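My current task is to audit a protein record that another person submitted. Alongside the sequence sits a line of tokens, each denoting a local backbone shape. Please read both lines and tell me whether the tokens look consistent with the sequence. Do not assume that whoever made the record got everything right. Thanks in advance; the entry in question is below.
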Amino acid sequence: MSTPPHPPLRVERRGNAQFIVLDRPRARNALTSDVIERLHRAYAAGEDNATLCAHVILGANSGTFCAGGDVRAVREMVLKNERDAAVGFFSREFALNARLATLTKPSACVWNGSVMGGGAGLSCYAPVRVSTEKTVFAMPECAIGLWPDVGASWFLRRLCGGATGTWLALTGARVRGKACKALGLSTHHVTCESWDAVCEPMVRALTVGASAEDLAACAAAGETSADAAEDGCDEYATTARGKRAIEEVFGDESLSLSGITSEIARRRDAATDDVERRFFAESAESLAKACPTSLEVTLELMRRARGKSLEWSLATDNALISQFIFADDFKRGVDAVLITKVGVPPPEGWAPTRSPASFFSRL
């Protein structure tokens, strides 16, 4: 008798709440076309079910919430010249992002592991976003020849401001644990143990008609002052000094990408302590390794997104995607990071840098 295939996600009713559990541990819960369609159906059904009061999404105890879209699969589509399938993967993902932003029932995400790229797109639209001691948040797309998509040019600015959002988008910096709340990425921070013991039972007890404030109260009940941020560059970014430095470097719209790079190097060399020096050294290293075209387009997009709507951001992502996934940089980046795992820059180098104007002139 054959064993039934392991489902990539589970939809469970717990009390009056719908829990969506991502469960692809070997693939770090990466989003495939199948998973995206299952998520569309799960949220649509939950919205239509009058006996459900809220949506909650989390990972299945794998140390990962969601590591993003399955770009390895997209790379294979590109190599096979399956252009419609490759573009369709992203268009359906962006449609899911739009759906998540317009849910009528309150929703929450629990980052019980790493959340990157498309994983942020699954969760940053929820009014209640819970980080844990296992959370590692990052938007690392520039390292594989893409740019932070899934509406990130809108939600990063909205959640943590233009300067911090631009720093995260360009460098792919990792933000850990409680630092997510300090930067505005998460709304609450609890330990995984507190979520299981305190918060989830309260969510299960919610009744039909519960509000986002009610869901937030469940998360707040598990918070304690003892939960500390990790010691790292994300900690520097949460300090008054770090926030000021990020604003001066990444928030100065008179600086070009090369100007930002030069200013980072200057501040690294002039740093007065190891924490500050490490922040700018890691930022410099990330920019030096990432795809130059991705960085240029990301910087331009983050600046253009100021004052724009989510609809604008997702429409722009849809318009940009085909210009990226069929380019050499995407194939080289995915191969270097996920196939051969030699890291970036790829051994053959990045393709010659293209001006961001050539991308946006087609929109």
Summary: Residues 9-360 form a domain with the 2-enoyl-CoA Hydratase; Chain A, domain 1 fold (CATH 3.90.226.10). The longest helix spans residues 83-101. The chain has 17 helices and ten strands.
